[in-house]
Fold this sequence. Notes:
This protein is mainly α. The protein has helices spanning 2-17, 21-40, 50-62, 67-86, 113-123, 128-143, 147-151, 181-191, 219-232, 242-255, 260-267, 272-275, 280-293; strands at 164-168, 174-178. It has two domains: 2-86, DNA polymerase, domain 1, CATH 1.10.150; 113-289, Orthogonal Bundle (hpI Integrase, Chain A), CATH 1.10.443.
Amino acid sequence: MSAHYLEGFLEMLLTERGAAKNTLEGYRRDLVDFESFIARRGRNFKTTGATDIQAYLKFLDDTGLKATTQARRLSAIRQLFSYLLGEDIRHDDPALNIDSPRAGRRLPKYLTEAEVDNLLAAAEGDAPDKKRLFSLLHLLYATGLRVSELVSLPYPALRDQDRFLIVRGKGNKERLVPVNQASRDAVAEYLRVRESFCPDGSHSKWLYPSRGGQGFLTRQRLGQLLKELAIEAGIDPAKVSPHVMRHAFASHLLAHGADLRSLQKMLGHSDISTTQIYTHVLQERLKEIVTAHHPLA
Length: 297
C-alpha cells in the first residue's frame, strides 16, 4: 500500500513540479528508509502518527546521522503527508507540528581570487583538452552555474554576439545569466576544437559532448578534471570542485559590491535565505576593515 502512495507522490513531483531525476531518486531513498522503519512498527503511510515520525527522527539521531540529513528526510516526509492530505488519502497531517532538527548552518567553502587565478593559469594551453577545461572553468567562475546546468548546456548555447546564457535550472525554470567577454573568448577558442570530442565525428546537440551514455561530459568527470588541475596549480585538491567554483563566484561578487537579490537571480535560488549564507563574505570584509583601519585595532 505504502509503495503505491510513494509512486503517486513521486509522479506528482515529476509532472507538477518538474523535479529532476536526481531529486526524485533522493526523495525515493529517504522515503523508502522511512517506510521500512514504520513497517517495523506495524504502520504504513496511511496509518502513521506523529509519534512514529518522532521515533524515526530519534532513531536517525541515535545512529549519528547529521542534523542536516535528518532535516532533509523530515522535509521529504512533510511533503509526502501534505500530498496524501491533498489527495484525500489521509484526513490529517502527522508531520505538521514536528520541529526540524536544529543545526548550525555550514558556511560554504570557497577559493580566494588568487587561487582562482592560479587555476585559470594552469588550465591555459593549446591542446584540445586544455581549451575545453579552460572554457569550463571560465564559465563556472563567471556564471556560477550548477555543474549539472553547465555540462548539459545545448549547442550552440553561446555565440559570439551573445552576452547572456539561457539556463534551464531546478524545477525546469529558465533564467538569464550574463557572461563576460573573457569567458566568451574562452568558449570561442574551445569551439574551434569541439568536434574532436564528438563521438566518432558525429554531430552532437551538447556544447560539451562526450562518448559516454548521456552524450555530454559528466559531472563526475568534470570534478576529476578540476582535482587534477588543482594539483597542477599547487592547490589542495580537496578544496576544489565544481560546487566550490559556484561558491567562489557568489562570494567574490558579493565582496566586490553585488547585491543579494541580483545574486539570487543569477544563482537560480528560489528563496533568498539560501543566498544569504554568502553574507559571511561581507562580515569578513568588515572585520578586515576594522582590523586595518581602526585606531584601537
